[in-house]
User: Fold Mechanosensitive ion channel family protein from Brevibacillus composti.
Amino acid sequence: MNEANEVKEVLAKQGNVLEQLYEKTVAYLSDPEMWVRVGLIFIKIILIVVLSRIVVSIVNAAVNRVFQHRKGSKLSIDQRRVDTLRVLVNNVTGYSIYFLAILLILQQLGVDLRPVLVSAGVLGLAVGFGAQSLVRDVITGFFIIFEDQFAVGDVVTINNLTGTVQEIGLRITRIRSWTGEVHIFPNGTITQVTNFSLQNTVAVVDVSIPYEEDVNQVEEILRETMKKARAEMEDIVAEPEFLGVQALGSSEMIMRVTAECKPNTHHGVTRKMRAMIRQELSKRGIEVPYPRVVTMAGTGKAPGQKQADA
Assistant:
């Protein structure tokens, strides 16, 4: 009998608990103020979502406009690379804005953001320490492309290595030297860049002339040859200049002529001008200077020996 009574008491207590829970639930659901708070929270969440979408659209439009202006840049950049960078920037900004929107929504739902922010900070710190070189490479690569420091096809010198740019990525840059070697640089290690494809270059030709030749005559020949080179070579953009006697050597005098050329064409122009000058000098009978040895006939006496009286 005692056990039966104990069971009945337990069932009665459970019934009372369920009844109280039911009454509290009904009272909570029938509370008008609760529904007003829920409605306000729902409206705020909708506003956060809508505003985040609007901000993302505005940022994407601004990014697309910036990269649209880059299409008219003087540098020739692969359009696929520009499109890839535009999509990358849009994705990064979109993810950042949506992440902030999610945090605001959690705050409206009553979630404490401090543990979330602390966890995100610790995770970001760990990633930053573990991949700081990668982050530096990506940031440097972004600014290389965005600022048009150099483009695919440009001839550049990077960290004392010269070659033609084959690929520009957010992490690495590839250049190919004229002998065929391919050099790969992490963008974060690029400390100095010389671009030979941005501005006009100057072809410099030094001409060696024997001392026996007339300087004025040689100058006239060089000026005529330079006018001819200007008319025949499209890469020369300005009238070549005769600078005069550059140096005096042991067996020759060196005269210098220069010509302004299109970007990165000075090597070819220099070779062609040198060949034309050499041909013209040969036609006029002006030889290439070479060292000369002068032999003087002696008396056959030893030094200090006096000639005997006849």
Remarks:
- The first strand starts at residue 155 and ends at 158.
- The helical segments are 2-29, 32-70, 79-108, 113-130, 132-146, 215-232, 266-283.
- The chain is about 55% helix and 15% strand.
